[in-house]
Amino acid sequence: MTKMLKGIAASDGIAAAKAYMLVQPDLSFSEASIDDPEAEVKRLEKAVSAAKDELKIIKEKAAANLGAEEAEVFEAHLTILSDPELMGNINNKIRDEKVNAEKALKDVTDTFIAMFEGMTDNAYMQERAGDIRDVTKRVLSHLLGVTLPNPALIDEEVVIVAHDLTPSDTAQLDRKYVKGFITDIGGRTSHSAIMSRTLEIPAIVGSGSATTTISEGQTVIIDGIEGNALVDPSSDELKSYAEKADAFAKQKAEWKELKDAKTTTADGKNFTLGANIGTPKDVEGANDNGAEAVGLFRSEFLYMDASELPSEDDQFEAYKQAVEGMNGKQVVVRTMDIGGDKELPYLPLPEEMNPFLGYRAIRISLDRQDIFRTQLRALLRASNYGTLAIMFPMIATVKEFKEAKAIFEEEKEKLIKKGVSVANDIEVGMMMEIPAAAMIADKLAKYSDFFSIGTNDLIQYSMAADRGNERVSYLYQPYNPSILRLVKNIIDSSHREGKWTGMCGEMAGDQIAVPILAGLGLDEFSMSATSILKTRSLMKKIDTTKMQELAEKAVNDCETTEEVIELVKQYTK
Fold first, then answer.
1. What is the largest CA-CA distance in the chain?
2. Shortest CA distance to 128 belongs to which of 177, 90, 73, 61?
3. What is the DSSP letter of 384?
4. How far is the C-alpha of 483 from the C-alpha of 477, rounded, in Å?
5. Which long-range contacts (C-beta less than 8 Å, at least 24 apart) are formed by 31-37?
6. pTM
7. Which of 84, 232, 455, 540 would suit a FRET pair with 487, their CA atoms being 20 to 30 Å apart?
């Protein structure tokens, strides 16, 4: 019998495929004394051999999907499993103490992990701790006879089922095989949801029970339009959803006809619709969907997809590829936004009670200027190959922006003195995502070339509600008059100084919000590439004079989100 799961529609589209459970298995074990140490050593050797065979396949798949450099981490794992000192110590513990292989493996590797983690003056050696931890988990899985999930090994069409997906998990999904996904937790603005839209695969988040309701191999329909998932659907249901998928495909084909059109309203006003991207590879999707700019290049994915801090040259090549790929259209690169739920295994961050309110983004950059300056040099060098703009994330004060801008100017001057060619028209702006900054937008507008409103964080900080927590998801209210007032203040402040304001949060592509934002005078709307053509179609139907009236009423007369939604429906019907 069909089971229905309801979640949050995170990415449009319909998909049907077998479930692939991306769930970590239970690797707990009991310590045991053994009578035959040599047999136990052989059991360990068999598990190590199986882990090596698995890693070789994963490395090959990773090289094909992600590139040779990304696959090198698995070569490091193979090297660890061939280390005579490590393996010798584990074998000796089995023989000397007559303990089971699981116990010996865990004790010895824990000692090595602690040793490497203690090398605080050597980042490279600290990274080895994470490698040993991963290898231990893999060998342990073979000792216990359980399977570790690995997206790199997927070679058939599947729907991913997970408690949650980390940004790095999502970034590695192969669209050829992964047709959609569903998670237990998360909201429309969680990073897994955002990446699903970038990857253009249907997704549902915040279902609450996907991993406990769905089993490996069951057929699952993902309706990313309505937010429904059907488990073990009937033939009639499969047929019905196939027809719905066809209808959606026809609608997309109609939108596709607007690919090369300008974003012009019914009364002739032009706006810019940009794409949010995570890697240079996403530029192709931006262009295919008619993007007039890249309003947000999330540069942190260059760091998250690497096994160590990316070099200046590696970053330069990535930024160069992106700006060249946009053929003269502006590319706005956000400097490294690490922290919160975006961690780097090779850059240990302090344990914090509230990481989203802690050491992250520009706060790390200003503290670790070696990392920041490397990134800025790479960006400056790439500026000659297209139209590049730079923005700093999580700016809270005028002082922070001035400090970041001064470091940018220093690096620019150094390169020029060395004879390195640098563009002289690089705009330097900032993300508007902290309420304190939004309230002094008039002050910040004197120094920043532009603002880009990050509504995902702006809303969660304003409403004191974690955007990834489904229990408080009702407080993610982009149309709340309080949020609209902050947005209006930011836009008005920039315009008074002759500057422009964009928006790169998910609100920019929200079909209810777009008419209000147009009425407020937002200059650039940047969104997941798949939302661009749908938004352009909507823009062509609205009259900005009428939308200005709508925006004024929404900001000044409405008291609730529901009143704003009803008002938009009245003005756009």
1. 86
2. 73
3. G
4. 8
5. 31/99, 31/100, 31/102, 31/103, 32/99, 32/100, 32/103, 33/98, 33/99, 33/100, 34/94, 34/98, 34/99, 34/100, 35/98, 37/94, 37/95, 37/98
6. 0.70
7. 540
559, two tokens: 């008291």
Considering 142, 191, 495, 558, which one is annotated as catalytic?
Answer: 191
Token pair, residue 67, equals 């590139």
* Token pair belonging to 114: 């602690």
Q: How many CB atoms lie within 10 A of CB 569?
A: 11
Over residues 521-544, the pLDDT tens digits come to 999 999 988 889 999 999 999 999
Task: 26-31: list long-range contacts, CB under 8 Å, 24+ apart.
Answer: 26/146, 27/137, 27/140, 27/141, 27/144, 27/146, 29/100, 29/102, 29/103, 29/140, 29/143, 29/144, 31/99, 31/100, 31/102, 31/103
Q: How far apart are CA 386 and CA 412, in angstroms?
A: 17
Q: Could you count the other beta carbons within 10 Å of the beta carbon of residue 418?
A: 7
> Structure tokens of 472?
């408080």
Active-site residue flag, 504: yes
Measured from the Cβ of residue 365, the count of other Cβ atoms closer than 10 Å reads: 25
* Beta-bridge partner residues of 222: 15, 229
Active-site annotation holds for 558? no
Q: Where are the alpha helices (DSSP H) in 176-310?
A: 191-199, 210-213, 235-256, 283-288, 300-304
With a cut of 70, say whether residue 468 has pLDDT above it. Answer: no
Indicate the pLDDT class of residue 503, thresholds 50, 70 and 90.
very high
Nearest to 325 by CA among 290, 281, 295: 281
Closest Cα partner for 162 from 180, 141, 139?
180
